[in-house]
Amino acid sequence: MKKIKLYLIAVCVLVIVSGCLIGSSNKKEEKVIYEGSFWADNVVDYKSIDENEDSVFYNSKDGIVRYDKNTKINSIIIRSKSTTTYCLSGQYIYFYINGKIIYRSDLNGNNCEKFIESNQVRSFFLNNSAKIEVYNDFLYIIASQYLIVRFDLVTKQAEVFSEDVSNYAFIDNSFYYIDYGKRSYSIYRKDLSSGQVDLIRGDGLSTRSFPQTESDTQGRYYEVISINNRLYYTMRMSKKIFSLNADGEDTLVEDYNNNEDYEYLIITKSGNKLYYLLQAESNKLTLFEYNTENGEKKAIQNLNYYYNWYNFKVVNNCVFYKTDVGNSVYYFTIEWEDG
Question: Is the pLDDT confidence value at 338 over 80?
Fold first, then answer.
């Protein structure tokens, strides 16, 4: 059985050492080490939190912080208050400053270099909140709400990759996504080499042509996510989770459609685990954990308070979410009870 501890984000800064300082001369750079508080206390943007086997990376009020899981030390590796987004790729971290320049450095914040200037992608109307992700030899920029630009890391050429994406996942040489503007809420697969697009789930028909009550009852898809090179997805107006098999068939992971106590279901991932949240009419929330390697399922916690749980995130045994009160970021830790 698991239990939780609930916290409101707080900050405590004490010691100064060395790192990458953006917007300064080539003098000795600095970074800050956070001491006297749990690492998650310093997070200001939970959606950008990322991790690898050794460390957690997150935005603080002073810049991008690296938390070493072994030494338990938090240290700023990119000192800038204008960092809007970033992503990890192998031994590099790519980060976006002021919506104008994408830099790249190693995971310690050293060997920092400008990687993409704004004039290289200006025609794609990037905004300050654009998200970035590196996959294979390309950097993908979610340039506006549903537009994705692909930047070749070798040739340094940019192109429009997709113009109607609400949710996506990469697996092998394929890009899986759910459309939004068309409002068919279907799942498509795009070949990353040929550009061929295939409809794999749904009918591809826009719900704009249906009355609202009728479209709500149809098989429309909501979220896609990849774990261990396997696709998991959910449906709108349906409390089910599926996984896509290699033969193209579905496996039903979870089905709460017959449970009238629950109203909606949302998912996220951490490592090889899928987390999903169910809300009941009473605003009671239940968080579940599904191990995709052995199929083990656990109900982690019943939460008695209603918060804005959309886009919740689980990183390094911490569950992050944002509330409607003061736009605050909250988290709780998941811990095993003794015995």
Answer: no
